[in-house]
Amino acid sequence: MAEKYFCAKTLPDGTRKLHYPHTILTGFGFLASSIAWAIYDPYITKILNKLLNESAVVTAWSQKLNELFPALAKFAEANGENVTGVAGGITLVPLFIGIIMTFDNIFGVIFQPTFGKLSDNTHSRFGKRRPFVIYGAPVSALLFAIIPLVALKLGSLPLTMLFIILFVFVMSLWRAPVVALMPDLTPNNLRSEGNSVINLMGGLGGAVGLFAGTIVTALYCAATGADSKAADWNEFRVFPYVFLLGALVMVAGMLVVLFFVKEPDSRLKTVADAKMAADEAATRKAEKEAAKAEKAARKAEKLSKSERRSLIFMLAGLFFLFCGTNAVTTFFALFAAEILHKTTAQATIMTTAFAAASALAAIPAGWLGKKIGRKKTILTGLTIFIVAFGAYLIAQKAGVDALSGVFIWIALIFGGAANMFITVNTLPLVLEIGGNDKVGTFTGYYYTATFSAQIATPIVYGVVRMFTGTYMSLFYYCPVAFVLSLLCILAVKHGEAVPDEIVEKVRMENED
């Protein structure tokens, strides 16, 4: 029988500390998910940009819009947009890219809370969460590998859309369960520290995904004798191999979770199982009593007015945070092509700096969340984000190319570290408000907020880009979103971890 807290080990004095090797193994599920999204955003936007620009239907719709509203083209031209293309004015391509890039987030909002809650009540020999990963990841990997084949080999926009929709649907089925796995296997007060390790693994997966284009391009050129720096080089020829690499890593991550992560059997078959369930219920009761002592009146099923207010502001803060970060991840490849004159592989190397900084900051972020508190660490990360992005914008507007070239790297590196300061501590904060018996449900709430932002921001920023005529507007849009997030999180008053000694004290009192 697997231990309840696979990601923790008990010390002789009765307190617990994080079991790092076990937590790393648990993080392979999140790594499998992260590599897919790291490849998805920059490469799918490039694929869609190609297919939509070649689409006669999209061109006709753009022409019709320009005929009906000629003032739109004049406005775009005044903002620097090239209006001499086949559409005869503004093009709807950025808007359509933004809409299509919301599909994964729409499915996340619809299905992730449902499947997070379903996993709370799943009874299997693999546990509550692992079945979703074991079956979901391989199917996702297969669909992921097919997308570039139908897009680039067949050149079919409808078929590409079909496989994108199937892929994001299956991904949404196992995202909440794989994220809820670590909190299930970790005591409350160690979740920030545990989440830092999970995000380190996610950052590693993201880095591999972002660097995949460079790896695959080098291998392709070595095997075929092609020159990626030649004028006639077509970067799309390596896209199928990049997606295949991501698919293989996804399957490998699933196998680690299947064979090495020990989640308790969630079936109740015997008297011993029933006794174990009763013991777990007693433990949960002790932890709830500790939370009452720390927070004054927490109810298992109903939040207090103050807790609800904190939850609402926390979710609003997450919404604005992800509005900013998702705009960058979704449109950075196009920004790099237009403003920095980089290929997709070069752009992903730049975002690898973001992912690497995130990975390096993961453990310090968890430690800092435990040392000074989750909220203060989150606010620190948001402040760094605002300063770093603002500095690049000022340098770019000053017209000093060398300075702006340095500051874009500073924005990516410091932004990556700031992102981890925030990410490591937001989910544990939300889960702490909800309580131990609602981990899956509140994980679903967390992803409802973040995916709602990721639905809104590609469309909203797509409109901003369409009218401003430049992807430089990305660095106006994002700092505004970060400031709004900071203001919301300042109003959060709950969600800090209950110290381990308080939990232990209440448990001993209950035993007496």
User: Order of strands in the sheet with the most strands?
Assistant: 1-2
CATH topology: Growth Hormone, Chain: A
Structural class, please? mainly alpha
- What is the average of the pLDDT values? 80
Largest sheet: 2 strands, antiparallel
User: Order of helices and strands, N to C?
Assistant: EEHHHHHHHHHHHHHHHHHH
CATH homologous superfamily placement: MFS general substrate transporter like domains
Report how far the terminal alpha carbons are from each other.
28 Å
What's the number of domains? 1
- Tally the beta strands: 2
Helicity level: over 70%
Outline = globular
User: Any low-confidence stretches, pLDDT <50, length ≥5?
Assistant: 294-300
How many helices in DSSP terms? 18
CATH architecture annotation: Up-down Bundle
Describe the structure.
This protein is mainly α. It has one domain: MFS general substrate transporter like domains (Growth Hormone, Chain: A). The protein is built from 18 helices and two strands. The chain has helices at residues 20-26, 28-53, 56-68, 70-78, 93-100, 103-120, 130-153, 157-184, 191-224, 239-260, 271-295, 305-340, 344-372, 374-397, 401-434, 439-468, 474-489, 500-511, and strands at residues 8-10, 16-18. A two-stranded antiparallel ribbon has the order 1-2. The longest helix is centred in the middle third of the chain and has 36 residues, at 305-340. It starts with 7 loop residues before the first strand and ends with a helix. 53% of the residues are buried. Residues 294-300 have low confidence and may be disordered.
